[in-house]
UniProtKB/TrEMBL annotation:
Name assigned to this protein: ABC transporter ATP-binding protein
GO terms assigned for molecular function: ATP binding; ATP hydrolysis activity
Domain ABC transporter, residue spans: 6-233
Similarity annotation: Belongs to the ABC transporter superfamily.
Lineage: Bacteria, Bacillati, Bacillota, Clostridia, Eubacteriales
Pfam families xrefs: ABC_tran (PF00005)
Keywords in alphabetical order: ATP-binding, Nucleotide-binding, Transport
Keyword Nucleotide-binding: yes
Length: 294
């Protein structure tokens, strides 16, 4: 059995009457673990609860054996990059880390040793003296990860770290996260399937506050076998087709187009079966969960 780093048991979290996390049980092992779900799925609420920033209302969450009910016991184990991470724009990259290190109680000696090493590790050594406002989106995200690593936690919680990055920065960040996960447990949330395919072997899919899948990414893909089809349609009939079939892709520019669609229930008489992608499988998962909720 792999060692469980984060243990979530029957967690329920609400904002007033709005249920954001709904009876969620999840055991996260060491290494890289993906949390995938559409906007509003409850990913940020779950991550804030794990990081002991939101009170656990019902159920139990432990990180490295420490309960989130005791934030002071959990925080040393956790580094957290919030979804809306921002810093004072006039500080330098290094100055910002000094400031955050000071706030989190790191000694001057520890800051002197760790900050240059972290800037190096995050490929930011050349930006150390640049102001935060002059950094690119990717650099800012890497600086955010550096601040999460300041106190050398075992677990990193990164809330949509690739959001808004251009493709090159996204690929670079994925590679960096892969390296980090050799030493740390990295819980990475995203709504982009490609992030999960590139970085994670294991994934939890959330939708509407619920866990709709947990396991290997490849096993998720295989679940869609026999449920993904392609067919040729005229552009004019596409809208009517969409009304009855979940379409995952449309290609072709001539009179007709090739439409890829999900058929969760039965073999459709139209179309030819095709090999599912992880994206097809994810959409199928979320589509099925949406259907159940209606
Ligand atoms: N502060 C809040 N007050 C009220 N509702 C909220 C608040 N934060 C999130 N929600 C709602 O809770 C649900 C889950 O949100 P969130 O955890 O941010 O999901 P995700 O990160 O997957 O997009 C959404 O329906 C969202 O609108
Ligand atoms: Mg979020």
């Amino acid at each position: 059995m792999p060692e469980t780093m984060i243990e979530i048991e029957d967690l329920c979290q609400s904002y007033g009457r709005k249920v954001a996390v709904d009876h969620l049980t999840l055991h996260i092992p060491r290494g890289m673990f993906g949390l995938l779900g559409p906007n509003g799925a409850g990913k940020t609420t779950l991550m804030r609860t794990i990081a002991a920033l939101m009170r656990c209302q019902q159920g139990a969450v432990t990180v490295c054996g420490a309960s989130v009910q005791k934030p002071a016991a959990v925080r040393p184990h956790i580094g957290y990059l919030p979804q809306d991470f921002a810093l004072y724009p006039n500080m330098t990259a290094e100055g910002a880390l000094q400031y955050l290190g000071l706030l989190s109680g790191l000694s001057a000696a520890c800051r002197r040793a760790r900050i240059p090493a972290l800037l190096e590790q995050m490929n930011l050594a050349e930006q150390a003296h640049k102001r935060v406002r002059a950094l690119s989106g990717g650099m800012l995200r890497r600086l955010g990860i550096a601040q999460a690593l300041l106190h050398d936690p075992e677990v990193l919680i990164l809330d949509e770290p690739t959001a808004g990055l251009d493709p090159e920065e996204r690929v670079r960040l994925r590679a960096l996260l892969g390296e980090l996960a050799e030493q740390k447990t990295v819980l990475l949330s995203t709504h982009v399937v490609g992030d999960i395919e590139a970085s994670c072997g294991e994934v939890a899919v959330m939708d509407g506050g619920r866990l709709v899948y947990c396991g290997a990414v490849e096993a998720l893909r295989r679940r869609a076998q026999g449920k993904v089809y392609e067919t040729e349609l005229s552009h004019g009939s596409l809208a009517a087709f969409r009304a009855h079939h979940p379409v995952t892709a449309v290609s072709g520019t001539g009179k007709s187009c090739t439409v890829r669609f999900l058929a969760p229930e039965e073999d459709p008489c139209i179309g030819r079966p095709c090999e599912p992608s992880v994206e097809d499988a994810y959409l199928l998962c979320v589509h099925a969960a949406g259907g159940e909720r209606q």
